[in-house]
Amino acid sequence: MFFRKNTALFHTMALALAYSLITLLLLVQSVPYSATAQTSTNKSLGSSLTAQNKDSYWASLSRDFAFGFQQIGKGGYLLAIWFNNIPEKTVVWSANGNNLAPRGSVVQLTADGQLLLNDPTGKQIWRANWDGSEVAYGAMLDSGNFVLARQDSHHLWQSFDHPTDTILPTQIMNKNSQLVARYAERNYSNGRFQFTLKLDGNLVLEARAFPLNSSSFAYWSSETAGTGFQVVFDQSGSLYVSGNSGSILKNISEPTSSPKYYYHRAILEYDGVFRHYLYRKSTTTADAGNWLMPIWSPSSSFIPSNICSIGGETAGSGACGFNSYCKLGDYGRRSCHCPNGYTFIDPDDVMKGCKQNFISQSCDEETDNFDFHRMPNTDWPWHDYEHFQGQTEVWCKKACLVDCFCAAAIYRNGECWKKKIPLSNGRMDLSVRGSALIKFRKDNSTLNPSSAGRSTLLLSSSVFLNLLLLLAAFLVIFRLNYWKQEVLQVHQVMPGINLQSFTYEELRKATNGFKEELGRGAFATVYKGSLESDDIIHVAVKRLNNMVRQSDLEFKAELSAIGRTNHRNLVQLLGFCNEGEHRLLVYEFMSYGSVASLLFGGSKPSWKQRMQIALGSARGLSYLHEECRSRIIHCDIKPQNILLDETWTARISDFGIAKLLKTDQTRTTTRIRGTKGYVAPEWFRNMPVTVKVDVYSFGIVLLELICCRKNFEVEVEDENQIILADWACDCYYERKLDLLVANDEKAMDDMERVEKYVMIAIWCIQGDPLVRPTMKKVVQMMEGSVEVSVPPVPSSFTSSISN
Fold first, then answer.
1. pTM reported for the whole predicted model
2. Which ranges of the chain have pLDDT less than 50?
3. Whole-number pLDDT of residue 494
4. Side-chain half-sphere of 698: how many Cα atoms within 13 Å?
5. Which of 418, 425, 712, 744 could form a cystine bridge with 318, CB 3.0-4.6 A?
6. CA-CA distance, 261 to 279, in Å (whole number)?
């Protein structure tokens, strides 16, 4: 609480009055407030805004609301409407939550009356669904509604008719309209819940069949089927379902404070709860003596009353994700937790659920390695695979213990239910009777359980054998130490992998003081080096710069994942330096350099060589995604990171380096990684990142290999050919594929393969990551073991194809 003296209060009121007079004078004179924020409400045809570092917007007359660009983290720009007179700048509507706009994008009210959002290259991201006819101007209204209007002020298009997750006072929802919750607090893409007024007049809260747009099941209903007509948020702050005559059928939220003194908004939040919020207007005289810092405060109205109870008999993750459980807090707030022995897959996205942090029970393993954690008042209801009655809790534990399929048991009043992984719809509440019994491994061992018993038997079978093993180990260690002194003089080898640890001085000498530079990127510089042993071994030494400081344990754990890789289509990591602030990586030296230097240089690879490079690169990525102990997402696939050895075999480099450089340890990051032109659209949408970002990048590289040109070239005769992906899609759907390889005689003689590989590339660059194939399937399609079906038109290219 902030306290002020009477003089301070008088001074503040005087300033507020002076500000009001100045604002009124500015309005009368029609003087712009600033270069990027204008108080004029009507925007003439031809007006535009550009996404830039500073928020760019059009304000309403009172400045309560603004329409324009907000930067979301570092991932891109949201075209939105927000409360403009409060520090939070709370968003109430957005146009492109599923597809954030890059910096430099422009929203324009065109000369023919259309409202368009285009990226810096002119590609359309979003448009208002109005053809522009009769539009005279656009306006941001004080109600929070942005409109396109005729000369007589009739609204032809308005944001109120196309809500996202929020409804405001004076806004009405008609039948078959809905609010869709965002994915997360700062991720405006479509989430897992929706608030829908059905065609029959019933208002429901529904879980969505995520990531699809269809509904899965309803978890709350207004019970107004057959009578409901509209959802009304009136000027007094009341929210209700009305009948055809305007009568109130179902109150959703009662007003507690007048909109004269408080801002109001009602939102379906990402946790699935619909809440009504209020924010005290700090300049009102009614609140002049109240010096509480204003914040958005939830009213007592929220539905459902217990979000943890959603799911019921319906299969699904529940309120918190598979293998997790939900606890209820104030104002219907949920908190999500993992049971003992489990951890969140992604702490920043609890809806992904929890995973076991121990090896599951093997069916030929001793039961002594496992025990149970008892959780009172906890349940994962339904979807059990066995049910017993008239038993004790001890009997229930034992029944689950001897069953290798059983991950947990629920015991209540003599009844026992066995559960398999994944556990669904978890909740903990005093109203829940009984207890959950969660099986976990006592020693949290990461050893292979199926071999544990056999290993114990072998090691304990003979004292003589143990002595032999000790002697053999001593001889091996002695020989390794002798070899290191005589050959490379490295300090140590990382346990379990073949990565050698070098000192900084050794690598400085090996590179002759980092003299011969092979390449340079945003995060590192690569130098040629030579390691002296019986023969001279040429290496490439990557010196990481701007490195995030990590502990030795974290750095080596990440190196361990890379060091265990072994595939003919990957550049082998030989060693590293982790000394003070120095972080260096030592790779095999690739004598033919990068694919980029050949593909975009003077001596271009032949059609056959390019297709071998494409297949080899696909196999290398498939290995990283599917066959490694820990999946590795490359994050920066491009021709510069595909190298060629002396046999012209494609070898992927730099895999895992993005993981080494990231500032957080989760899979969802707002910082875009990769190279412009190869970056998958989900990076800009602030969505969880998966291996499918590499699939997208590979699709772009595949098109470059097919066409033997860069993905973005300004100096072309036809402007439709500037962006390779757009042009390739146009050529495929217009049956003009010969244009892509017109200057390549060998490719022209192999048009069947050209068509097949273009189809594969289009599958890879689909906007929805779930539609893209895995790299394993890409390899199978390229090899011919899986048929390539006709790809859908990528969402981001639809406009260019249709036009």
1. 0.53
2. 1-40, 284-293, 445-464, 478, 480-492, 548-550, 658, 660-670, 798-803
3. 55
4. 32
5. 425
6. 9
Distance of CA 279 to the CA centre of its chain: 30
H or E element at residue 694: helix 692-707
What is the predicted pLDDT for the residue at 242? 95
Written in H, E and C, the secondary structure of 619-664 is: HHHHHHHHHCCCCCCCCCCCHHHEEECCCCCEEECCCCHHHHHCCC
Integer angstrom CA distances of residue 580 from 554, 584, 658: 14, 11, 21
Angle at 412 between CA 408 and CA 416, to 5 degrees: 50
pLDDT, residue 546, reads: 54
Can you give the pLDDT at residue 312? Answer: 59
Q: In what order do the strands lie in the sheet with 146-149?
A: 42-44, 137-140, 146-149, 155-158
- Residues assigned a catalytic role: 636
pLDDT for residue 343: 94
Long-range contact set of residues 82-91: C-beta below 8 Å, sequence gap at least 24: 83/144, 83/263, 83/265, 83/279, 84/57, 84/59, 84/60, 85/281, 86/263, 86/279, 86/294, 88/296, 89/55, 90/265, 90/279, 90/296, 91/166, 91/188
Could you say which architecture CATH assigns to the domain 33-42+60-161?
Orthogonal Prism (2.90)
Residue 741 gets the label, from left (phi > 0), alpha (psi -120 to 50) or beta, of: alpha
Distances (CA, A) of 786 to 623, 696, 779, 780: 18, 19, 9, 5
In angstroms, rounded to a whole number, what is the distance separating the alpha carbons of residues 768 and 760? 15
Query: Who contacts 151 (Cβ-Cβ below 8 Å, separation ≥6)?
Result: 136
Q: Which two tokens stand for residue 429?
A: 């509440």
Q: How many residues does the chain have?
A: 803
First vs last C-alpha separation in the chain: 59
Beta bridge partners of 231: 173, 241
Residue 243 burial by CB count (10 A; 0-12/13-18/19+): exposed, middle or buried?
middle
d(CA 771, CA 64): 41
Q: Which amino acid is at 93?
A: W
Cα(606)–Cα(598) distance, rounded to whole angstroms? 10
Tokens 């019994």, residue located: 437
**The pair of three-digit structure tokens given for residue 238, joined into one six-digit string:** 């009341």
User: Residue 61: what residue type?
Assistant: L
Domains 163-305 and 595-802 share a fold: no
Q: What is the pLDDT of residue 534?
A: 57
pLDDT digits (tens, 9 = 90+) for 733-791: 999 999 999 989 999 999 999 999 999 999 999 988 989 999 999 999 999 988 999 99
User: What burial letters (b/e) apply to 298-308, b meaning 16+ CB within 10 Å?
Assistant: bbebbbbebbb
Tokens of 50: 């550009």
User: For the domain bounded by 595-802, which CATH number is listed?
Assistant: 1.10.510.10
Encode pLDDT of 50-61 as tens digits.
998 777 899 999
Q: Out of 1.10.510.10, 3.30.200.20, 3.20.20.80, 3.40.50.970, which CATH number does the structure's domain 492-588 have?
A: 3.30.200.20
Domain 163-305 -> CATH class: mainly beta
Domain edges within the chain: 1-31, 33-42+60-161, 163-305, 325-445, 492-588, 595-802
What CA dihedral angle connects 200, 201, 206 and 209, to 10 degrees?
Answer: 30
Query: What pairing do the DSSP bridges indicate for beta strands 65-72 and 56-59?
Result: antiparallel
Q: 142 and 85 in contact (C-beta within 8 Å)?
A: no
Q: CB neighbours (10 Å) of residue 111? A: 10
